[in-house]
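Structure first, sequence second, as always.
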């Protein structure tokens, strides 16, 4: 098992944001985390990338992450593409991508991964010298995903990759996410657009009020009456 979480609890001061969460990810799996605003999706990703503390079991490749710093976790192969993208807006596309590889030393492997990002998102190759804050929201999201890939992840954490993005680019981004996964990278993707997420995911968890309310194969959840009603606006 790549990632194993059990009885995981986390919060902000007195306010509990995750309570007794149980979850696992197999190598190479694409798992969607669904749920309404405030359900705890971003908190879960922050806990996995150690940008936030937690109690309970949190293991990556059988090793507890509790005493790891954010930077050490990147070194282990967990790369977080956070909410709001957190790019360097005044730097070029290329600089932002290169910064994703700051812990790595193998130049050839870094160059290969840059090629991989450009083949996933050809528009970024065309715009490699452009300053990031002059790109569209969708293109900036591509840079953010690309930057996370430049860390050479085994596990990629994506926080709402489609938020605020025009439909066509959104479909392109979801297709790229599936391609990344098919290339062997496990992905945990928090997403409000349940329909698109279930379309590309292998499995999904639904968070409600900080706890897992439902879980299963993406195809099963996509045809589940309760999910269809609440999250897909059908029925
Ligand atoms: N920085 C913060 N300080 C205090 N409370 C927060 C903070 N971020 C999130 N929360 C609270 O934690 C809960 C879970 O939030 P979050 O993980 O961001 O949910 P989601 O990503 O599913 O929208 C919510 O009740 C939210 O208000
Ligand atoms: Mg969120």
């Amino acid at each position: 098992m790549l990632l194993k979480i059990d009885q995981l609890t986390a919060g902000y001061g007195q306010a509990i944001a995750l309570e007794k969460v149980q979850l696992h990810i197999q190598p190479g799996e694409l798992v969607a985390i669904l749920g309404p605003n405030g359900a705890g999706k971003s908190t879960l990703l922050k806990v996995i990338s150690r940008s936030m503390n937690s109690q309970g079991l949190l293991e990556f490749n059988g090793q507890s992450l509790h005493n790891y710093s954010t930077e050490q976790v990147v070194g282990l192969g967990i790369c977080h593409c956070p909410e709001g993208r957190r790019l360097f807006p005044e730097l070029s596309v290329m600089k932002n991508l290169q910064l994703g590889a700051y812990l790595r030393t193998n130049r050839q492997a870094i160059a290969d991964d840059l090629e991989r990002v450009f083949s996933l998102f050809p528009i970024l190759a065309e715009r490699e010298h452009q300053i990031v804050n002059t790109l569209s929201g969708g293109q900036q999201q591509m840079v953010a995903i690309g930057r996370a890939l430049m860390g050479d992840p085994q596990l990629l954490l994506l926080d709402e990759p489609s938020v605020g993005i025009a439909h066509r680019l959104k479909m392109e981004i979801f297709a790229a996410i599936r391609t990344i996964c098919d290339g062997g990278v496990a992905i945990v993707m928090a997403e409000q657009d349940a329909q698109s997420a279930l379309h590309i995911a292998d499995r999904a968890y639904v968070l409600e009020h900080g706890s897992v309310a439902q879980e299963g194969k993406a195809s099963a959840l996509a045809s589940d009456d309760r999910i269809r009603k609440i999250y897909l606006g059908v029925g």
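Margin note: Residues 41-42, 83, 159-160, 190 surround magnesium ion (ligand 2) (CB under 6 Å).
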